Amino acid sequence: MARRWAATLADTKGVTLPLEELEPLLLEIAHDAVDHAGSGHGGALHRFTALYAASPMGIALAGPDGEIVEANLALGQLLGCSPNRLRGRHITDLGSTDHDVSRLKAGLEQVRNGRERYQERMLLDHTEDGQLWTDVTLARLPGDRPGSVYPVLMVSDANELHLLQERLLHQNVHDPLTGLPNASSFTTKLEAALGAGARDDIALIYLDVDGFKVVNDGLGAGVGDQVLRGVAGKLSAVFTGHHDGFVARLSGDGFAVLLRGELTATEVVELVERALEDLNEPIYLGGHGIGVSASAGIVVRAAVEDGGAELLRAAEIALHRAKEAGKAQWMLFDPELDARDRGRYQLGAVIAGALENGEFSLVYQPTVNLADPDRLAAVNAGLRWNHPEKGELGSDEFYPLAQTTGMTVPLGRWLLAESLAATARWRARFGAAAPDVCVQLPTRLAIDPDLVLLVKEQLDKHELPPNALRLCTDRASVLDPRGEVLDSFAVLSDLGTQLVLTITGSADLELIPRHRLPVHHVILSGAVVDALDSDAPPEPALRHLTQLVTRARELKLRVGAEGVRTHEQAARLRQLGVLAARGPFVTDSATGDEVDELIARHPAR
Questions:
Q1: Taking 50 as the threshold, does the pLDDT of residue 22 lie above it?
Q2: If DSSP codes are grouped into helix, strand and coil, which group holds residue 332?
Q3: Within this chain, do residues 229 and 299 fall inside the same structural domain, yes or no?
Q4: Domain containing 287 — which CATH number?
Q5: How many percent of the chain have pLDDT more than 90?
Q6: Based on the domain organization, do 243 and 123 belong to the same domain?
Q7: Beta bridge partners of 279
Q8: Is there a single domain that holds both residue 288 and residue 385?
Q9: Is residue 168, in this structure, part of any structural domain at all?
Q10: In this structure, what CATH number is given to the domain that contains residue 138?
Q11: Full residue range of the structural domain in which residue 30 is found
């Protein structure tokens, strides 16, 4: 258009146009320009209006003061009202809470001061449904006058997305079965409680459902899950509301409680006892009244004393002690006991190295014939640890630790190998006067599937007849559900090895006929022997012992005793029919050289 009018004005054919001719020409130019501009503006306005009306996003156009002058249908539907009801309201009035109103005000102010766009997720009011999570954008549109600004509000529905995010967040920090906070959430809570500047007392309680496997396996996992929900509910009812109580499910049937504030051990113990008492009340499911018990480990201390790891460790130790003490009870963490236990655990951790470094040796206890105490019936071999710092340690000081660390079998193998090597040496030196060796099998070695192979290899290695070895076991090994104990003993008996059973009463003795144990000897032990170590033994004890010896003879067993302290006690045992005994009345123990001298003085038959 500009080029056309420029050409027209330029083509004057060399003459100057008079004013009356130029004026119509300029008016024609102006009208043409207006028509051209109007047609473009009208098209743009039409397209904007159509977009505004059809947009799925809620849009509100506002005046410079923030008052809504126009709202589209989408915004009305989003907020549950007609667009007409939105006109005249201020943008900030749409906020559902004071916090949301403040954020809308701040957004308007920033847009007026030059910010192109302000975006936030916030709650707006819905006419019928109350609060609605939305994503809000405030932007600026230029006004009619230079420098003027018209705010525009754009709103999209974020309610489902927000609720999904909240649900995912909840699942991330909560146990899906019980609804309690999970282990991750508990760790976060504990770290916050122990954070910098913490001055509260802290109580950490670990609880473990006793025998939950019985419920789960006996009645099914579905019932087990309901029981765990019941446990969670009872724990929450007791602890929530006391000292900022926070209850969590850690895993399986394990729960934890965190308390903060001014605490005493007495207060915490009272809450724990109440919880354990509530858990004992049956939960009725499917016609079954299911009662559960729980064990609890408790730690109460100032928050500034230790970090979270040390606190958790203390609670685990206290819980472990509660279970060891018989379950269904609580145990308060004892720092002094823990210090002693740490020393024991450190001892247990180095057993493997001590065995490799030759720190273990054999110690012997002779068994003599009571009818002829100058003759040996057998020599019992045991282990002694010559610790470089703690000195000589007896088997009762390290065997329980070996059981925990898995060193029982290596120690038992070493004991068997060294005992048979010593037996071969005695036979070479003393011939027929050499005694049999008796080895007490730890339970873990007694149930080992390689026991028969191990015994045969060692007998063959030292060229010993099987009857030179007596293997001693006890009730716990015989009844242990693991392994093939009875089969192993049957094979060992067939080889010619002598089997010995330690008994403390009639129930132990009756294991022999019940399980057809190929046992040749029984050794009386414990209270049944101790009862005779007095000037006037109780009549019931004498009667009991007499019955044991009589029953053993009926089973064609040879009867011995261990732990015999005095010659008088040995004499009473002999009168009752006991054939052999060992204990302090002969000697407490003997080393390798000492036992050789003992054998020389007390030759076997």
A1: no
A2: strand
A3: yes
A4: 3.30.70.270
A5: 33
A6: no
A7: none
A8: no
A9: no
A10: 3.30.450.20
A11: 1-51
Q: What is the pLDDT of residues 430-481, one digit of tens each?
A: 888 888 999 998 888 888 888 999 999 999 999 999 999 999 999 988 888 8
C-alpha to C-alpha distance for 216 and 98, rounded to whole angstroms: 51
Q: Is the pTM for the entire model greater than 0.70? A: no
| C-alpha 170 chain-centroid distance | 21
Same domain as 303, residue 422: no
In this prediction, residue 423 carries a pLDDT of 93
Whether residue 343 is contained in a domain is answered as no
Who's near 177: CB < 8 A, 6+ residues apart? 225, 228, 229, 249
Query: Facing residues of 382 across strands?
Result: 363
Query: What contacts 482, CB < 8 A, 6 or more positions away?
Result: 447
| Residues 406 and 519 reside in one and the same domain | yes
How far apart, in Å, are the Cα atoms of 539 and each of 256, 528, 536, 542, 562?
53, 12, 9, 5, 21
Confidence bin at 599 (pLDDT 50/70/90): confident
Structure tokens at 290: 């299911």
104 and 29 housed in the same domain: no
The encoded tokens of residue 262 equal 């001014």
Per-residue pLDDT for 207 more than 90? yes
Within 237-308, strands assigned E span 246-251, 254-261, 283-285, 288-290, 293-302
Instruction: State the virtual CA torsion across 104, 109, 115, 120 in degrees, nearest 10.
Output: -10
Residue 247 is predicted with a pLDDT of: 93
Joined together, the tokens standing for residue 57 give 């996003």
Nearest Cα neighbor of 579 from 362, 351, 372, 363 is 372
Q: From 113, 138, 163, give the residue that closes a domain.
A: 163
**C-beta separation of 508 from 527 below 8 A:** no
User: Would residue 552 count as lying in a domain?
Assistant: yes
Residues 540-564: pLDDT tens digits?
Answer: 888 999 999 999 999 999 999 999 9
| Residues in Cβ contact with 269 at an 8 Å cutoff, skipping those fewer than 6 apart | 298, 330, 332
How far, in Å, CA of 169 to CA of 454, rounded?
57
Q: Concatenate the DSSP letters of all residues of 439-453 into one string.
A: EEPPHHHHT-TTHHH
> What stretch of H or E contains 196?
none
The total number of structural domains in the chain stands at 4
Same domain, yes or no: 21 and 131? no
Q: What does the alpha-carbon distance between residue 172 and residue 175 come to, in Å, rounded to a whole number?
A: 8
Name the CA radius of gyration of the chain, rounded: 45
Residues 323, 391, single domain; the answer is: no
